[in-house]
Design a protein that fits this description.
With 170 residues, this protein is of the alpha+beta class. It contains five helices and four strands. It has one domain: NADH Oxidase. Helices cover 31% and strands 18% of the residues. A four-stranded antiparallel beta sheet has the order 1-2-4-3, sandwiched between helices. The structure holds flavin mononucleotide.
Length: 170
Amino acid sequence: MIDAILKRRSIRKYEDKEMLEEDIKEILEAAMYAPSAWGTRPWHFIVVKKSELKQKLSEATPYASHAAKAPVLIVLVADMNLAKKWVEDMSIAADHIMLQATDLGYGSCFIQIRGSNEKVQDAQEYIRELLKIPSDFNVECMVTLGKTAEEKDAHTRKEIDKRRIHLNGW
Ligand SMILES: Cc1cc2nc3c(=O)[nH]c(=O)nc-3n(C[C@H](O)[C@H](O)[C@H](O)COP(=O)(O)O)c2cc1C
């Protein structure tokens, strides 16, 4: 497990190569084992492969341009009829996606959607309209996936600042 945790980096350049369907399935299954508040599992995952849709989604925020060229883009959506703590539930699911993707040899990157309103339209509303997501479902983030086309060093244990760990109080 620590290997995948250290290896996972935010990858923003991808090979123009399709992902294996079975790998996408495995990655989404890993997401669906994530913990969720009250065990509500409020998630839905929209798998986007169509180029024109990825292009439009990459314009949702100023920090999403790499989504256009990622082979697969996952949009993480929470059912607000079920969710009690949707931000946390969806963020943990996103981390499961990224770690499982790393373990299978893919690169990934988290793209913030909730609360992103740097563009004319709020990013969540823009995506809701584009993908026809009902109003009682919220979009937390997107995760790009694909074979990496950039070299990034794995994290190392030297990065850890032990002063951040406190025992029995501050
Ligand atoms: C809550 C959150 C929001 C992020 N939003 C974006 C984003 O919108 N676009 C992007 O390219 N990266 C985004 N990132 C990725 C971070 O920039 C990245 O994790 C950070 O720089 C550390 O690098 P590493 O992931 O390679 O360890 C986000 C990460 C998190 C956890």
